Every structure is written in structure tokens, then in C-alpha cells.
Input
Amino acid sequence: GRLPAYGPIRIGSRVILHRHRAVNGDANWDETMAQYVGRQATVTSLAGVDNAGCPEVQVEIDNTGWYWRIRDMSILN
Output
């Protein structure tokens, strides 16, 4: 299969997490994630794509407990 396009995001990138926007009605979101919204985090893994085809990463701030869509984050470096 085709690898997801991560653009400038790599392991070690610093990002600001945002709430996921729905794609075809699926936000791939759990309210427990809300406590991390607006916070800076460091990418620890490039985690493939979710059911909507959105590339996701894991970050250290939530002890890699959640998968975050890269389309819903700001890249700091």
C-alpha cells in the first residue's frame, strides 16, 4: 500500500494539538483527548492512517495513548 503523506512532520516534530474535525461524519475523537487540545507535544511515531484515510501520529504528552490526525495540528518545527 501507499505510505501516508506526512509532509514536514517527522518523529521529533513539535506540534500543537487541536480537536479533530469530522471527515464524512467521523471525527475519530474521544472526549478524553480534549485535555490535550491547545498543548504542545512531540511526535513519537508516524502511526499510519485512520478509517477516514487521515494520517495519524502518536505524541508523548498523552503517554502515546491516542492517535492524532495531522490535519488537525499546528506544526512548530
About this structure: The beta strands are 14-17, 40-49, 55-59, 68-69, 73-75. The first strand starts at residue 14 and ends at 17. The CA atoms of residues 11 and 43 lie 5 Å apart.
